[in-house]
């Protein structure tokens, strides 16, 4: 392979679609306009991938999945905080209500 892209250090997006990493890329790529197919995955270079509609994207970010969510938004990863539940929405226990 001309460059060592076949590691999961790189993420790719096809025409702005969901980002994926090398192991999940298809065994062939198709040029969007002409339909030309390239089956030589080990020979793909950055230029070939870009010609066939694939773009390099930022690596999947590190985040706390207890307090945040992460999703792909066409051209970038978006990390959003999970809203905290309002205390009034949580039922009170009998002890907190003064019951026995």
Description:
The chain has 100 residues and is mainly β. It has one domain. The protein contains one helix and seven strands. The protein is elongated and about 50 Å long. The mean pLDDT is 80.
Strand content: 15-25%
| Class by alpha and beta content | mainly beta
Query: What does the oligomeric state look like here?
Result: single chain
Q: Catalogue the unreliable spans.
A: none
Shape: elongated
Strand order of the largest sheet: 2-1-5
Overall helicity: under 10%
The major beta sheet can be summarized as: 3 strands, antiparallel
Which short descriptors sum up this protein?
elongated, two-stranded antiparallel ribbon, 7 strands, 100 residues, 1 helix, 6% helix, mainly beta, 3-stranded antiparallel sheet
């Amino acid at each position: 392979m001309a460059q060592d892209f076949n590691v999961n250090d790189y993420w790719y997006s096809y025409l702005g679609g969901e980002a994926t990493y090398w192991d999940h890329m298809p065994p062939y790529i198709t040029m969007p306009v002409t339909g030309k197919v390239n089956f030589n995955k080990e020979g793909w270079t950055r230029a070939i991938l870009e010609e066939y509609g694939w773009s390099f994207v930022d690596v999947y970010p590190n985040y706390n999945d207890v307090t945040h969510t992460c999703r792909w938004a066409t051209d970038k990863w978006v990390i959003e905080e999970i809203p905290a539940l309002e205390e009034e929405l949580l039922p009170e226990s009998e002890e907190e209500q003064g019951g026995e």
